[in-house]
Amino acid sequence: MIGNFNDTWNLIGKMTPARIANASKVFSSYHYSRFTGKAAHGGMPISIAIEPTTSCNLRCPECPSGLRSFTRPTGMLQADLFKKTIDELANTLAYLTFYFQGEPYLHPKFLDLVQYASSRKIYTATSTNAHYLSEQMARRTIESGLDRIIISIDGTSQETYEAYRVGGKLDKVLKVRVLLFD
Ligand code: SF4
Questions:
Q1: CA gap 127, 66 in Å, rounded
Q2: Is 81 buried (19+), middle (13-18) or exposed (0-12) by CB count in 10 A?
Q3: Are 173 and 129 in contact (CB under 8 A)?
């Protein structure tokens, strides 16, 4: 409960006058379209999602990355493209979802890119299978300014965990809780 309050307060703290004005444009144009039936679009994105990489170390059976079944190439986000996008949007952008399919920590510059967005006071969130969160990476994660981390734990024993997280090691994931939160 207190964690949720702090998280919300943290997000609110990133809302500059330009971001609030932009969000108002987006919401008002949405409601205008809804009530009049006429398409209208105002403002710039409030929130964007960027995938750091399509590659993954695990083989989860419902995931295109785990199944190695992408129709697009497996690869890494280009740092220059990311920075250019952030530079163009930072004035009005409040929230960056920095994951989709693929394990973000496999990107060699992932935390540098988090730091780049964070330095522009954009709220950053990611999700990880936590197999690369060594003590050093855990420290770097905290120092990067990342605001939210989702850690996938899908079982309470190695057997139940690996039923979905194929190739994963539950003990590695549980160690991360100690590194990040204790
Ligand atoms: S850990 Fe995540 S990205 Fe990797 S295969 Fe599983 S669901 Fe997909």
A1: 15
A2: exposed
A3: yes
The number of residues making up the chain comes to: 182
Q: Is 53 in the pocket of ligand 1 (CB under 6 A)?
A: no
Query: 13 CA distance to ligand 1 centroid (A)?
Result: 32
Q: Which residue is closest in CA terms to ligand 1's atom 6?
A: 60
CB 133 within 8 A of CB 179: yes
Question: How far is Cα 51 from Cα 7, in angstroms, rounded to an integer?
Answer: 22
Instruction: Let me know: does 159 contact 131? Beta carbons within 8 Å.
Output: no
Atom of ligand 1 nearest to the CA of 103: 3
Question: pLDDT tens, 135-148?
Answer: 999 999 999 999 99
CATH topology of domain 42-181: TIM Barrel (3.20.20)
Assign 76 to helix, strand or coil: strand
In this prediction the pTM is: 0.93
Would the CB of 65 count as within 6 Å of ligand 1? yes
| Contacting residues for 100 by C-beta, under 8 A, at least 6 apart | 49, 51
Alpha carbon distance 172, 164 (integer Å): 16
* Residue range 139-182, pLDDT digits in tens: 999 999 999 999 999 899 999 999 999 999 999 999 887 777 76
